[in-house]
Amino acid sequence: MTGRFLRDIAVSPGFDPAIYPFHLPVVKGLIAAGRLDLGPGVTFLAGDNGSGKSTLIEAIAVAAGFNAEGGSRNFQFATKATESSLGDHLTVGRVAGRRERSNFFFRAESFYNVVTEIDNLGVGAGYGGRSLHERSHGESFLDLIDKRFHPHGLYLLDEPEAALSPRGLLIALARLHDLARAGSQMLIATHSPILLALPGAAILQIADDGRLRRVAYDEAEAVQVTRNFLNAPERTLRHLLAD
Fold first, then answer.
1. What interhelical angle do 53-63 and 25-33 show, nearest 10?
2. Out of 19-23, 123-127, 158-162, 164-168, which region has the weakest mean confidence (pLDDT)?
3. Which residue, 83, 133, 204, 242, is most buried by CB atoms nearer than 10 A?
4. Where is the AAA+ ATPase domain (predicted)?
5. N- to C-terminal Cα separation, the chain
């Protein structure tokens, strides 16, 4: 059964469009569109640096009741408050009568703090039985999605590829595929052409003006840039490194 727990998101009125984060491209695009519908299974947010995709994922997590630094809804710690105010102005619509059995918000930049909190709470048994600090960043993330992510779950992920090798990305891709088939809903911000290849996933490309457009895999900017480089690296390097 395909999972769908979050129905849509929209920016509520009462903000100053001239200040951060409301001037970010994706936020401006969301405001102009009125709302963003979230489908079942996996939805990718793909866009260049500075487009605001990580800020949007964070805001959705906060508006949906997650800790801004990551973890499940039961995590209430705070190392340093750096989240934007967007979450306070975001409305998250839920599918009536549907509630996920498991949930987690992963963000690469603060995962170390989450792992420390897991150790402090003494709940490592649910994450493989030993501290995730005893493994590499990539290994700890793979253990997280293998041991802690369950069927019929809601998972928000911000740039999970940051810790993973190409082989690790393939392992993660297979696990995300299994979770989607088992009724989970996932919203993932990523630059990874490997993850974007997930069968059945929706890819929302953030344009320069912030508009969100669903694209096919071959149309995704990260895929095109990577493919062009791999097909002719010498040509790209000649252009980049020209005197």
1. 60
2. 123-127
3. 204
4. 39-218
5. 56
